[in-house]
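Changelog-adjacent note: as of this version, every example in the card shows the full chain rather than a window. The one below runs 333 residues end to end.
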Amino acid sequence: MVSSSVEFRGSVSADRRLQSRAVLGIVLMVSGLALYSLSDAFIKYLLESYSVSQTTLLRAGTRLIPLFMATFLFGGPRKVLRSQCSSLHLARLGVNLLYTFCFMYTFSLASLTTIYTFSYTSPFFMVILGALMLKEKVPLERWVAIGVGLFGVALAMQPGSEVVEKAALLVLVGTFLGAFNKILMRRLAATEHSLAIAIYPNLLMILTVLSFGLLSHIAPDSLSPYFTFSWKPMPWSDWGLFGVVGALTAGAQYGIAQALRFAEASTLAAFDYSTFFWVVALDFNWWKNIPDAYTLLGAAVIVGSNLYIFYRTRKERADQESLNPKFLKEEAI
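Full-length structure tokens:
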């Protein structure tokens, strides 16, 4: 999911400072998000043949290869993975683990369009967590926008559809955890290398799945079927598909990181929702799924609420900048 984008922060040089080339930044952002959507489509396709545990293990493994290779561009693994805040890392790793399992299981239940529609609630959870954890002041109109967005969630859940309701609840839990994960990532970014922030969750995922496998072997009935590790032999073509997933994810992360060099994050934020068009197209071409009226209307309400929150936030920042021209510069540091 998009919730996985990482901005790689190495040493800052003059030629890597923010450049005002918004069109190129938008193209790179949309391309990176398209690669993420395609990666998720491959994962959903592979889950039709392989267990959640096997798919999760190989997904994490293929992601690690390009990430570890990238560490040698920044002084090697020892330098990159050195941590100054191990306790916060552990908290974030636990949250990320649950978040990943929620979405991996949901991929086996629902269409990409349904999953992405509910995942667009992330800004709502970011506002709520920001108010609770960071003591941020949230204006009344933003709370109203969140309420309207939750009405859109209720529409998209299609009351009476057990599969959609189950998938929706899993995605909403996963999205809440993803928003919490982002807040923890922001705190870690002050002291930790971005590659370390990306590598550690994949290492933990591999260790967790292998631990499930060992426990399943020692005590077969101790885990639910969802967590039980099962391995199914794969043809070389499917090994190649897992390799493609790793390459697509790495390309998406790099594209988004580059986009943030050429355009401000506030300019790019609205283009997050371009993923909806990609997943609708992928659902139709791959599985012949067409979103129903409830999903489309719910998505429109959720995205509209998010865009209003984005508009109000940007307006408030502009007002603060007019009163204090140094505000945005300090925010960017």
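Structural remarks: The two ends are 27 Å apart (CA to CA).
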